[in-house]
Specification:
The complex is a heterodimer of chains A (about 110) and B (about 110).
Chain A (H helix, E strand, L loop, with lengths): L3 E3 L4 E4 L4 E7 L6 E7 L5 E6 L5 E3 L2 E6 L4 E6 L8 E8 L9 E3 L3 E6 L1
Parallel strand pairs in A: 2-11
Antiparallel strand pairs in A: 1-3, 3-8, 4-5, 4-9, 6-7, 7-8, 9-10, 9-11
Chain B lengths: L3 E4 L2 E4 L5 E7 L5 E7 L5 E8 L2 E5 L6 E7 L2 E6 L8 E8 L9 E2 L3 E5 L1
Parallel strand pairs in B: 2-11
Antiparallel strand pairs in B: 1-3, 3-8, 4-5, 4-9, 5-6, 7-8, 9-10, 9-11
Amino acid sequence: RKEVEQDPGPFNVPEGATVAFNCTYSNSASQSFFWYRQDCRKEPKLLMSVYSSGNEDGRFTAQLNRASQYISLLIRDSKLSDSATYLCVVNIYSGGGADGLTFGKGTHLIIQP
Amino acid sequence: DTAVSQTPKYLVTQMGNDKSIKCEQNLGHDTMYWYKQDSKKFLKIMFSYNNKELIINETVPNRFSPKSPDKAHLNLHINSLELGDSAVYFCASSQGGREWETQYFGPGTRLLVL
């Protein structure tokens, strides 16, 4: 079983629509959670962290369900510039520092005009 | 100023050659990482360094050796390159390797082994 699983898509969504992505993670020791965004042929960049209480940043809302080991991202009023690959990421922090991130394969989103 | 930089951006080489990729960060971070993104776009941790000490070494062939001359640099040396090494290699850094820290990625080095 993969450590972080996501639906690879692509999700083709009209501009202005709301779209939701989900991911599941297998390691219950995972301690921190993120959504990163990766544009074509570019590096990943942090979109938002995902806290147990959930968090919102403008049109983006992220939620975490530790019991189900499930993370979600909701994008409202989608823009053409939201077209990208969204990477679900977990960090299994060992306390010794320098832990690498575990990435899902990403969900490809295409916003259509 | 670029926060995390890598050189070269593109690297085309023959099987069996030895090559190095350089990474520098000017963020004052204590921890640096190397990730590999394969042809299926799967991004996976290879190594990380905290204060010049290797903390993680995933199941990567020993042909790959990270070298950190100082806190701001983490280079990746690859011996006897194989076709399967073709991928995009990303360097990243974070403040101190704590669980909620943002990792900042370099632009990537696209390696093609012929």
